[in-house]
Write a structure and sequence with these properties.
Two copies of one chain form a homodimer. By secondary structure, chain A is an alpha/beta fold. Chain A folds into two domains: about 180 residues, 3-Layer(aba) Sandwich (Rossmann fold), CATH 3.40.50.720; about 130 residues, N-(1-d-carboxylethyl)-l-norvaline Dehydrogenase, domain 2. The first copy, chain A, contains twelve helices and ten strands. In chain A, strands 1, 2, 3, 4, 5, 6, 7, 8, 9 and 10 form a ten-stranded mixed β-sheet that branches. In chain A, β3 and β4 form a beta hairpin. In chain A, α6 crosses α10 and α11 runs antiparallel to α12. Chain A is globular and about 55 Å long. At the A-B interface, α8 and α12 of A face α8 and α12 of B.
Chain lengths: ~325, ~325
């Protein structure tokens, strides 16, 4: 069996299993369903609420209500492998992406990872050596405001492509579906370079926003000293990208600084996670970059400092979450 | 008039004006009075309580109650210049040390600065070019726990010497007085090098303790990543010290790491300031070092990152303090 979708049946019947029903999974799942795909979801903590009421995406451009075809507790409950398993979970230690999709990956299935960070495809690629891995980057401001409730604030563009490189019909299909409902989408044949480009922004702004006391992008760029550090981190990311054969264009730093100055004040996802007592994606965004820097002999002192500090902040958060979950209030 | 003290009258009659009645001023003022010096104090926020009840230093080694000869609101109220003006205020922007001692400095007066940081003597030295400046470093764990109430927890050694270098009879006198009451003291003819040595510890541990989420020395050294950053900061301080002609011994980093591991878990002064909503000595400890690094062309990326982050954390604190002082609760 090749999966229940055949490309000549038309894209409307593409079957997609969305794993993770936070802001990213909820938003793209809802829009793909709106475009006509058959979308099921794996929801854990929000399972019962989503099974009862579906997923609601509130957006200035119009609200979308999304009733998944199936609401599962685990990908293992899947009644036949879909065309695409779309993974939209956070990349944090203990969350094993390969395990999360286990049971839903057939010979015709592609795995699409819409996740933050660098080098996050490696574990999945190792676990499914025969499977097409697609890597996606969401440029979106959206928050999960309750179980099955997503507030879409701004942007929404998805960049995706085959990992590590090359063309992909499935990537094109996702792109057509999203564009058919007005979500901008870009297919790239060099998605790893696209990840490095995104890291140029994420690596400085995410950690600084937390470590400098909980500040938005404008407060960071209002400080001459912090702007200097942000630029230095970006330079380290560029040197590192070049060292691993993904050189970025020389104006990427100015573009990121100027572009961010032109944006509304923006709270990073790491700051939102921190403020809401959730684990931050420290390893995916910073730890992997620092380890690559070390193994490639690229100096990255600013990045290392941010990583070391945030690593302990995250660890403290883990301990507090553990105490809360044990019912302790100390 | 040469001041009311003549050295041939014996050290018991040394006259000392202590400016600042926090932990440092309170502790050393009390012990110098105990040793027989005639000690007056300038106290601002705690003025009335200290005038009424003196200063009480609680210590495992025995409590000391200290009734200052005079309790002034300003050095300008001084009834004749003392032998020594001992300044024990924090070094924060807006606190002008030269202005604080104005009016109390006669031709025979020396100014002793027991303060944190590097290059903190410069403004006072420029304002009083004819006056002997003594520079002092307190190795002490002590907190002001209320107006005129000091809790002495551990240590207490004072290192002092003439700024920028050379011998000093006044430094010897202070040393004899303190040692006569059991407070260890060391006179150095190269106090600037001693400041660099102390900065080797202060520059990493103070900022990291705040930025990593409010952690003590053992938590920092329990993290491999943060220990690496602490060492890197120490290396930058050593390179900087060498560049400004105050080379430190090659084993100073290992000594500081190993010595700190052997200590009880210790909360830095910056962390105590942060937790209590007080301004941190970011400029004296980090800003001056970063500026020296830049003007001397010494790379200091780890130090710069810590400085930039803490600078904004401090600024946020300033704004919050301002709002509190305006009676706002937002």
């Amino acid at each position: 069996m090749e999966g229940h979708h055949r490309k000549d049946e038309g894209r409307a019947e593409a079957s997609i299993l969305v794993v993770g029903t936070g802001a990213i999974g909820g938003f793209y799942g809802a829009r793909l369903a709106q475009a006509g795909a058959r979308v099921s979801v794996v929801a854990r903590s929000d399972h019962d609420r989503i099974r009862a009421g579906g997923i609601h995406v509130q957006s200035e451009g119009g609200d979308v209500h999304f009733e998944p075809r199936q609401v599962l507790r685990s990908a293992r409950e899947c009644d036949g492998p879909p065309d695409i398993v779309l993974v939209a979970t956070k990349v944090i230690p203990g969350a094993d992406t390969a395990d999360l999709v286990q049971g839903a990956v057939g010979p015709g299935t592609s795995i699409l990872l819409i996740q933050n960070g660098i080098d996050i495809e490696e574990p999945v690629s190792r676990a499914f050596p025969e499977t097409e891995i697609l890597s996606g980057l969401a440029f979106i401001a959206a928050n999960r405001v309750g179980p099955g409730r997503i507030l879409h604030l701004d942007y929404g563009r998805l960049t995706l492509g085959r990992y590590p490189s090359g063309p992909s019909r499935k990537a094109e299909m996702i792109c057509s579906l999203l564009e058919s409902v007005g979500v901008p989408c870009l297919v790239t044949e060099d998605v790893v370079t696209a990840r490095w480009q995104k890291l140029v922004w994420n690596a400085p702004f995410n950690p600084i926003s937390v470590l400098a006391g909980g500040v938005d992008t404008q407060a960071i760029l209002g400080s001459e000293e912090l702007t200097r550090v942000a630029r230095a981190v970006m330079e380290e990311v560029c040197r590192l990208a070049a060292a691993v054969q993904h050189p970025l264009s020389s104006d990427v730093i100015d573009q990121n600084i100027d572009g961010t100055r032109a944006m509304k004040p923006y709270k990073t996802s790491m700051l939102l996670d921190y403020e809401n007592g959730r684990p931050m994606e420290v390893e995916a965004i910073l730890g992997n970059a620092v380890r690559l820097a070390r193994s490639n002999g690229v100096p990255a002192p600013h990045l290392e400092t941010l990583y070391a500090l945030l690593h302990l902040v995250n660890l403290k958060g883990d301990i507090e979450r553990h105490h809360r979950s044990m019912g302790r209030q100390d």
